[in-house]
Amino acid sequence: MRNVLTVILAGGRGTRLEPLTRDRAKPAVPFGGLYRIIDFTLSNCINSGLRQVLVVTQFKSRSLDRHIRAGWGFLSTELGESVEVLPPQQRIDETWYKGTADAVYQNIYSIEREVADLTLVLAGDHIYKMDYGSMVQAHRQRGADVTIGCIPVPLAEVRHFGVLQAGDDDRVAGFQEKPKTADPMPGVAGHALGSMGIYVFSTRLMFELLCQDAADPGSDHDFGKNIIPKMIDAGRKVFAYRFRDENRKAVPYWRDVGTLDAYYQANMDLIAIDPVLNLYDATWPIRTFQPQSPPPKFVFSGDGPPGQARRGEAHDSIVCAGSIVSGGQVRRSVLSPGVRVNSYAVVEDSILFDHVDVGRYCRVRRAIIDKEVKLPPYTVLGYDTEFDRKRGFTITEGGIVVVSKSEPPETFQAPNALPQ
Asked: Is the pTM of this model over 0.90?
């Protein structure tokens, strides 16, 4: 994949994922115990043979920058390979990035320096497996000006996507960014053709279009809202590329984990007996930074006061390195590295980030708990959502309790009656 530069846009605020994005960018949010969201896009690049990657950051980027330096510095710069983070430099404009196109435009000098014939633009906040090489090859074979990655989306969800109208030859005749309604795809009832936010551009043409867009004071400086529709109107060769899943499952897997409930469900998908996202496929590995931690440990096997089993066990769960389940019980949950579940505690249907400490006799159900939170003994979460809301915790539409970092101990005061 020579002469292809990859630009990953990783600067969004991720407001719908607060409080998980209160101190980190959305692509840096932990996922599946071991990973960060951006690891899936970066792994797709490496598995596709793309080794020149620029990651454009903006808001709350320290955690993301630290993760990429620690986990993605293995490429050889002597061979022209690297994953490089580009913080806002304000070389062209004194403002924050105004849109996806402006984010690329303001880094045009860094992109020019790489001297690539094609530029692949990706979003860094989706969970999926895809060979970008096949998309680049299709772009070249068609002599396209831009190729857009796309996937069928339910008509009820089109307000969250750019929607394409494409013929049998995949030539795009229309594009609407986040319309209220859309016509269904031919032959696919109930679905429209949605943009994945993946674009392959001929680099020189992209520069030309970005400069024209930057000079337009009425533009939102966004690929979906401005650049793509203008290209179609001008008769440019705009093509759709249908998503080809490398997940090797019956149903294609692509998730926008942009809300807390969607994020929670995507994590819960991983603990199924036959998970819809296969993390165990050695032919398409998902890479990440892995700290030097001891193996997970389970201690105590049934001793304890009469009627109270003190048994360290986990069922239907992911338990990462460094975790200790010490006389507690874990069911259908994701335990990130360094988590500790102490005696007589019960954790169910929950996601625990790095180094969460669950005290004795705690009851945790349907919760997301951020890094390094320490739950005092007898803490109860997820049994009474109104009580949890009064304590200041975020409650999602689906009833998931979200606990942010640095919660004061008094926040975890238990109700009078401990649920059994």
From this structure: yes
